[in-house]
Write a structure and sequence with these properties.
This protein is an alpha+beta fold. 25% of the residues lie in helices and 21% in strands. A hairpin with a 4-residue loop joins strand 2 and strand 3. It is extended, with a radius of gyration of 22 Å.
């Protein structure tokens, strides 16, 4: 075998070969959106890419066998306290034990658990955030559901001072003085 043939053979041996979908590992449960839809009805499907139909059925490759609808808690996420509360959700500080990293977990407030319109907006927020990639936008890691059926999404924990705190420290002067 020539040196060139050996190089071709070595490349062929190290090139990943496609694997048929029927040989992919089974996932352990439905997606978070499927689970949410089962308890509340249809939810929005948002795609920021014009060439992707978010309602089309596609083959999905799940990153792990972990139940996607499992809530933050002793299993994978540890809740460390509340960071902030807004109009429709609360942001909790959490710890991902699988990846050994701190994160923020936004959860829909209990008072909106049965409000389909607010639930839809919450899921849209998670989907849009999960598709955007920009230094000024916090990445979304996962969408899930608490046992009481409220959705949550896990995202990067941004450390530092809030905009409100920075504005309080700033001394504004009136124009013309």
């Amino acid at each position: 075998m020539s040196d060139q043939d050996q190089d071709v053979e070595a490349t062929r041996l190290h090139t990943p070969q496609p694997v048929a979908p029927d040989s992919w590992p089974e996932t352990s449960g439905p997606s978070a959106l499927t689970a949410i839809e089962a308890s509340t009805g249809p939810v929005p499907r948002v795609s920021l890419r014009p060439d992707v139909d978010p309602n089309a059925s596609t083959v999905k490759v799940e990153p792990s066998r972990q139940e996607r609808t499992s809530p933050p808690g002793p299993g994978r996420f540890e809740i460390l306290g509340e960071i902030a509360r807004g109009g429709m959700g609360a942001v909790l500080r959490g710890r991902d034990s699988d990846l050994n990293r701190d994160l923020a977990i936004k959860v829909l407030l209990e008072k909106y658990a049965e409000n389909v319109e607010v639930l839809g907006r919450f899921i849209e927020e998670a989907q849009i955030g999960g598709q955007l990639q920009h230094p000024g936008i916090v990445p979304v890691y996962e969408l899930g559901q608490f046992p009481d059926k409220r959705p949550f999404f896990a995202m990067k924990l941004v450390k530092g001072r809030t905009l409100a705190a920075l504005l309080k420290e700033r001394h504004f002067s009136e124009p013309g003085r």
